[in-house]
Every structure is written in structure tokens, then in C-alpha cells.
Amino acid sequence: MELMQRITEPILGFEVDLFNFNEALIFVHQHLKANRGLHIVTINPEMISMGNKNQEFGRILNEADLSIPDGVGIKLALKIKGINQENIPGIEFAKKLIGLCSLEGYAIGLVGAKEEIIQKAAENLRKEFENLNITYIHNGYFDANQEEIIKEEIKNIEPKVVFVAMGAPKQEIFISKLKEQMPHTVFIGVGGSFDVWSGKTKRAPEFYRKMGLEWFYRAIKEPSRFRRIFPALPLFLVRVIMETVHENWVKIR
What we know:
Blueprint: E1 8-11, E2 14-17, H1 21-33, E3 38-43, H2 45-53, H3 55-63, E4 66-69, H4 72-80, H5 90-104, E5 108-112, H6 115-128, E6 134-138, H7 144-157, E7 161-165, H8 170-179, E8 186-189, H9 193-198, H10 206-210, H11 214-221, H12 224-229, H13 232-252
Parallel strand pairs: 3-4, 3-8, 5-6, 5-7, 7-8
Antiparallel strand pairs: 1-2
């Protein structure tokens, strides 16, 4: 089977895939059917900023097998570069992937969040997807010694897709180490998705999501997020503008 080829665009040194939602899902499905593993990153401006400061994290982002554009910041950055790109919310993509696993019979693993959160999330997912086979569950609170035990457990059980909800960059570093030993498994970092799937946290109303303002709604609910977003997001876009101007200048010289 011939696999779909990635089409990417660099943003401040990091490649972002230009698939739409369905194409990205097909890309993952093809790899699952071909028994080939993936590390899926749901990239956003905050991760790019961290990647530019943290060499290890930056390397992991650049080695990802699929980097889907998650959030209005990436969409705006690509717009500045002349590309109209569909935003792919990571939480929605992950849920579609779970649905696919349920239909195809692929076993999944869940790692992250607090014990009561991950257990409730698993319970709710089993109710939503009747045939879902969750073969591994572990919370995200463990030390370095426990981490090695968890990795061994996951390797022995071999779920086909592993969803890791520990926040960036921790979840990506965890995935990177495990992926080397599990080349046939698909891994995806899902941030705070377990909180939503458990019912603890509510997603933004549909209006905010359609307008690409889910980040704004979350910041209203959690004012501490404003310190992370501002001035980080405006500075990120300014850097993208400067990068784009430089690229265009080089082309016309």
C-alpha cells in the first residue's frame, strides 16, 4: 500500500503538516493498517516557542511523524505565509482516532492525568464507543523509576495506539523514549483531553470553537493562562512575519 506523502510548511524552524482533518486521519489509518508507528504532535505556538528554547524538545518536535496544526496561532501563522490551513483541534482529532480504533479493533492505552480523572475518562470512552478495547491505563504521576516500569508494561501489552496526557513537553519526551522501542505503535500527546473526557472540564461553547477562540474562552475561565498567551502569541506572530519577509526577500534577490 502506498502511503500518503506529507506536505509541510516550516514555521520558525518547525515543520507543520498541511493536511486537512480527514486527510490527517487517513494518513494515520494508513500507517495503522501497514503496522507502522507514528509520533503525532498537535503543534501550537507555545510548543514552538518551547522548542526554540529547549534543544531536546525542539529535536523531538522536528522528528515527529505528523505535526497537525492545533490552534488559531498556527492558522494565523500559515495565513501570514499565504496558506489557508484548516485548524485541527487536537482533542477532536484524538477522539476521532479513538472512534477509528473502536471500529477497527485496535487496542489503545491511556497514560496521564490524576488517577480518578483517567479512570473516569476511560469509563466514559467505553460508554461512548461500545467496542473500544482499552488494554492499558496509568495516571501521569510517577517518578523516573516508576516511568521505566510503566514503559515495560506498555511494551509488554503492546496497545496499537497510546494517548499520553501529561502536557508539553513532558508527554512528548515520554513518547519519544518509548517510540524507539515500539516502532509499530502510534503515539499522540493529548494535553488536557482526559480532563474533558472525564467530565471534569468543559470545552468552550461551539461559537468559540468555530471562531477559533477556544483559547480565549479557556483564558477567561483560567486567568493565569493570559500570562502564558500574552505577550507570547503576538510575539510569535511578529516573528513569523519577520521570517516570511526575509524568505520573500531572499526569493526576489
